[in-house]
Predict the 3D structure of the following.
Amino acid sequence: MNIELLKAYLEEKYEVVSATNGNEALELVNKEKPDVILLDVMMPDLNGYQVCEILKKDPENQFIPVIMVTALSGRDDWIKGIEAGADEFLTKPVNKMELLTRINSLLKLKNMHYDLLAERDKLDLQNRIRSVLTQIIPTLIKTLPREQKSIVIHQMIDMVVEAIMENTDAENEIESYECIGDMCCQIINQLGADFKSNVGSEGNTLFTIQGHTCPWGKKEAQVNPILCTLSRGIFSRILDIYNQDMEVDVLETMGNGDEQCLFQLNKIEY
């Protein structure tokens, strides 16, 4: 009856799956990966406290919000729930408005948590790529013969673009020129730049890409101007990936002492 009541409260807004005992609940969590778990304290085999404790110790499930639903209202019962890792409590009989409000609040907190994790991963990516390209590659380039430098630079460009696109919501295909400039900016900005794309207004220039924050760090780029070549190469590689008949011209770079970086994406004339 409790399950049917909660379903009636929730099914207008949420997809609901239910279990009738603790072990079944754990199996369903691993299968369904729910956004929120409503967990009754009194259940066969494993009680709600035990199930909650198991979930919170599992790295795959520990951040799923758990609401303990209980007829118990004593202080000791609430302490048990807190110790097990419960995020919220509801006392039977459950009030529909209170239930929906608690779920909505927990979903907002969960989304904020995952946004923070995504931002952390983005920063980790920036730091890893910057570390390799600003500290290791320039030193390596200096020791190579001229004919090998171009090969290494192209390999580094492919590595950077591949790593960034794995962490970017990029579409697999771009059917027109309309968003290619934004795509270039979206990818280079994953490295910490603030590049912006503008529609070109002269000749065969389709877009200009402009920025005042260097993806490699302004000082690092001035010490190692080869990093500016990597920026241009990243844009060119993106155009190749999306089969765009365009080429990249470099007008200004902070690595060469300019106040900004400025690139042109020009249509290739045949």
Remarks:
- The radius of gyration is 27 Å.
- Residues 96-143 form the longest helix (48 residues).
